[in-house]
Amino acid sequence: MTNEETVRVSPSREDIKRSYEKISRWYPLAEWFERGARKKALQVLDVREGEAVLEIGFGTGHGLVEIAKSVGETGRVYGIDITPEMIKLANKRVEKEGLAKRVWLCEGDARKMPYENSVFDAVYMAMTLELFDVPDIPIVLGDIKRVLKPTGRLGVISIPKEGYEDSLVLKVYEYLHRRFPKYVSCRPIYVEDSIRDSGYRIVKSDETKIAKLFPVKIVVAKL
């Protein structure tokens, strides 16, 4: 991974938290555009009945609902997010779907999560890993390794830098990130290299586009 080619994250965790609180009412629109990638990623992750699954950075809860339906009544779904307003919105969504008894949400930092070792069958994160600064990405992936079972799976949807170094769309996005970092808080990263460098084995990798324009990569990895 060429870290020097990855745009750094300048806002603090609190800056990003406040930004997402401000945009939380509009965030379902972004999740609507991401629905195709989310559906494809969860199919590849192959969440099964009875599993314990964690979603990191769950937004307003669309992914949580789909995961909760997949694990069934015997499964458990956990979610961690830094934004209290997102937690409120996600709780409302899972309650409306009648799934609240199998979903547990908390406010927290993915760099040091409040879960015991080796408790999850799968961990899922969509458009979240690229929110972290370059030095923090391996810390997040390391703590995911800690909470995953030895046979566990990691599913990631991310904006890829690899293969798109000359993409005009992503160059514009990186410019907006530099210009308005509190609001365009994520940016392209070397997602596959980041995952491999953290000791995972990639078992599946695919790409799709949001709104037929914006590339995203879907990666499933194991320990």
What's a quick, concise take on this entry?
This protein is of the alpha/beta class. It is 37% helix and 24% strand. Helix 3 (35-45) runs parallel beside helix 4 (62-71).
What does this structure look like?
The chain has eight helices and seven strands, in the order αααβαβαββαβααββ. It is of the alpha/beta class and 223 residues long. The protein has a single domain, classed as 3-Layer(aba) Sandwich (Rossmann fold), CATH 3.40.50. α3 (35-45) packs parallel to α4. It is globular and about 45 Å long.
What labels describe this entry?
7-stranded mixed sheet, 8 helices, Rossmann fold, alpha/beta, 223 residues, globular
Topology of helices and strands:
Layout lengths: L12 H11 L3 H7 L1 H11 L6 E5 L5 H10 L4 E6 L2 H13 L6 E5 L12 E7 L10 H11 E11 L9 H12 L11 H7 L3 E10 L3 E9 L1
Parallel strand pairs: 1-2, 1-4, 2-3, 4-5
Antiparallel strand pairs: 5-7, 6-7
Helix pairs in contact: 3-4
Q: Mind telling me the CATH class? A: Alpha Beta
The DSSP helix count reads: 8
The end-to-end distance, rounded to whole angstroms, is: 19 Å
Q: Poorly predicted ranges (pLDDT <50, ≥5 residues)?
A: none
Count of extended strands: 7
Instruction: Give the helix/strand class.
Output: alpha/beta
Order of helices and strands: HHHEHEHEEHEHHEE
The helicity comes to 25-40%
**Gyration radius, in Å:** 16 Å
Q: From the coordinates shown, what is the CATH architecture?
A: 3-Layer(aba) Sandwich
- Spatial strand sequence of the major β-sheet: 3-2-1-4-5-7-6
What CATH calls the topology is Rossmann fold
Note the overall shape: globular
